[in-house]
Amino acid sequence: MPLETFKSSQSLTMGVELELQLVNTYDMDLSSSANDLLELLRRKPFPGVVTPEMTQSMIEIATDIQTEHGPLLAQLREIRDTLVRAGDRLNIEIAGGGTHPFQRWFEQRIFSKPRFEQLSGLYGYLAKQFTVFGQHVHIGCASPDEALFLLHSLNRYVPHFIALSASSPFFQGVDTLFDSARLNSVFAFPLSGRAPFTLSWDEFANVYFTKMESTGVVKSMKDFYWDIRPKPEYGTIELRVCDTPLTVERAAGLACYLQALCRHLLERTEAPPEEDDYLVYTYNRFQACRFGLDGMMVNPKTREQISIREDVLATLRHLGPHAEALNSQVALDEIERTAARDGNHASFLRKQYAASGSVQSVVRASVDALRSGPG
Amino acid sequence: MFSDVNFLLQSMAWPLVLLLAWFVGERLHEAASVPRVSSYVAVGLVASLFDLPGLTNAVPGLPFLANVALSLILFELGYRINLRWFRHNPWVLALGLVESVVTFMAVYLATGWFDLPTETRLIIAALSVSASPAGIVRVANELRSAGQVTERVMHLCAINCLVSVLALNLVVGYWHLSTSGDLVMAAFGSIHVLGTSVAVGALLGVAGPWLLRSQRIQERDVTLVFALAVVLLTTMAYGLKLSPLLAALTFGIVARERRVHLTNAQRGFGTAGDLLTVFLFVYIAALLDWTDVWGGMLLGLALIIVRTASKVACSLAAARLSGITERKGLLTGLALTPMSAFAILLLEQSRLYGFDPARQVLAVMAGMMLVQELFGPLVTQRSLMAAHETHVTKEG
């Protein structure tokens, strides 16, 4: 089946998806309770979309199509409040964070949907180790070629999003020393990584995808686990590298940082993307996962080393006018605070661990952070 | 010399029976996924049939050990109780209380069909309210079960046990009053047992976590400290003539509110907990007298039907209001079937503190206890499986 046509959508519209953890209230382990929660949520209209995910201890929420930070954050908060209230009725806590700090993957129940069962059959323990929680941001694109242009132009900014969102330092009960341990699980999948370099949708759909499909390896875009992938049926590109942050405020901030960045890139004042940009891509990505904002990245154009923190702050200085046009100054302030002062949520979680010495207190802190926002 | 051999055989009987129980438990679990605790009970029953020397409560210390074993489980149950949940979802609390009262009354009325003294009927009704934390917690842990049926069964079981202890002590107080006519003694007896047990448990629940925090005790040692605290609590309860079970449950509930985390690697107190559980179920089964069992079978079956019907009906009625499907409500009611270990130890305790009719009540209820002990855990297991709350062991 050929790749479906790219549905045009309004440029720079946004949609946010968050994968959230369901946690029991007594020992803070993951709780296989998605069915119960979804059953309760079905009784009332939900302020967005909520769907089951790979395992019973995870649910995914999605916002409507949004254009500005204010309404986006308002909807995320409403979704959060609805979930927390439903969780309270069922004695389940809800938390952000890219990984659960101490869950044992082999104890997670796989959701009984045929696709998930098929994935579980194919990937074995990888499917269960995939009990990790990400934020996906969709950005609307007017044309498929615009989508591919943005997708490849963003390559040098991918480390920013990894470092800013990183919230998975603990995995299987230990400090991994990575700020985002989650991405290591994602990279284990055979079709993860970057999209092939082409700026023409015609070439992407009719040459690359057709060839891939003929190998029998993929059937649809869903089989690619790329860091950024085009989503023809929505008319968007989807950034998939972010850990689910601990707060919806950070999630909205990241989405609007991406939106402002795309607006900047669409002015086409920067040198156009090229295949050689990807020479440093995996190195930069590793630095962001391992060291977060302290990681050193190489600028693919100038080949200069700069800390990710510095590069984020330098980028923010260019985005002022875009934030003004998009009405998202508050969001970019949140990003600036994160980079300059507060640090990402991985460092927040490490502080919690240092103070209490218990991974369960780390989950407790995540639960409280989602409920009450930053602070 | 010969008497030494005899003594040796006597002392070997217990460990050998426990080893056999463990072995049968593992094998049947593997072959037919029979809950391990049901196998332990079966082995205990067979052992009591042979009347092995030293297998009765004539051996001092065994009732104490059984109380420690059950107290550990009650602590764990208490630790799973989230009081805040009752505020967010009052229907769960209401269900627990209403169901306890309905079960008490239904069983009391049902015992009217049989020729029994009023005290016996009241005691049977009070005990029928309880659900066995040992059966339920062990089965839920064995299945690594999680979900609404599991959560609710735990919380309802705790409420049931509390109401049952309360009702039993009031009845015992009433009995003291009617036999001795001493109102002060009667009131002091039941109020002291209830109030002081709760107070001691709560005190330890506050002091324990405080100690752990102030000494910065490592997370992995927390379980050990709590286990020793439960042993201490049981000893104190014996000395002060309190209810060790009530104290342990309170201890767990309060400790959890103080937010000390138990590591989940040691759910059920690890290997030591497993060992004590084998002992507990074999011991409980060995307490039953086979002649009583057959005599009380008709009454037993009638009571099981009434008790189960009451629990299922209440749970079903409250299902939608409390935020779950009717199907899960039904399964919650069924999963509350086990009741014996808690009821038997509670009764034994009251006998120890001078409540004479206890032995007679145990004889009357023997049939009910036996069936519940053997098959209760199985019903819980099948209910949790039917609710799809168990961990799928099939690797894919």
Quick recap of the structure?
The complex is a heterodimer of chains A (375) and B (396). Chain A has 375 residues and is an alpha+beta fold.
What attributes characterize this protein structure?
heterodimer, A: 375 residues, alpha+beta, two-stranded antiparallel ribbon, 14 helices, 46% helix, B: 396 residues, mainly alpha, 17 helices, 0% strand, globular
Account of the 3D structure:
The complex is a heterodimer of chains A (375) and B (396). Chain A has 375 residues and is of the alpha+beta class. Chain A is 46% helix and 15% strand. Chain A has 14 helices and 13 strands. In chain A, the strands form 4 sheets. In chain A, strands 1, 2, 3, 4, 5, 10 and 11 form a 7-stranded antiparallel sheet that branches. Chain A has a two-stranded antiparallel ribbon with strand order 6-7. The model of chain A has no long low-confidence stretch (mean pLDDT 92). Chain B starts with a helix and ends in a 10-residue tail after the last helix. Chain B is built from 17 helices and no strands. The model of chain B has no long low-confidence stretch (mean pLDDT 87). In chain B, helix 3 packs across helix 8 (148-180) and helix 9 (183-214) packs antiparallel against helix 10. Chain B is globular, with a radius of gyration of 20 Å. The interface between A and B is medium-sized, with 34 and 33 residues.
